[in-house]
Amino acid sequence: MASFTERSALAGLATPGHCGRAGASGLTVAERTDIAFANVTARRGKRFMLVNAVNTAFGVALPDGPRRTTVGSVTFAGTGPDQWLASAEAAEAAGFAAKLRARVGPFAAVSDQSDARLVLQLSGPRVRDVLAKGLAIDLHPKAFKPGDVANTLIAYVGVQIDMLDDATWQLTAPRSMAGTFWSWLSASAAEFGYDVVTIGDA
User: By three-state DSSP, how is residue 27 classified?
Assistant: First the structure.
């Protein structure tokens, strides 16, 4: 029987180390391969019951609008009307979509997205400058705050951008578009210098 090994979405595209302009880095990039994802869409007329079920199961109050709410290792991010992208880390990540279906299945459609995502966390003093090269949204601290979420396009790639805290941003893109997205990010960050600290199985 064939065996399979999990492979980084950026394998062969990026390796740990300093890239771009020499000197201090303006950006730090880390790929996350330890987060499970699932789309959650409320069934017609079941939103109220879904809200209660998620709160009971995970202690999370579902955000109303493009915000993210995290309790422990579980996060729900609002992505559209009656739609959320749920994610889990650490022990909760294993079989996360199945756990969701078991707990909220009567009130929502749950679609496992864990293997379909490239997830990068960005930090550093020039993060906004890098992102501004490809984002048509206002990233000023008064306009986009920690906990905010946006679904947008970067280099014609659909991306979800989450501001995790004052220093860290998370970008989630389709795994199938990893090459295109990395080409844009590496070119945009080159003038500031950037460090790649973790790339999956590199």
Answer: strand
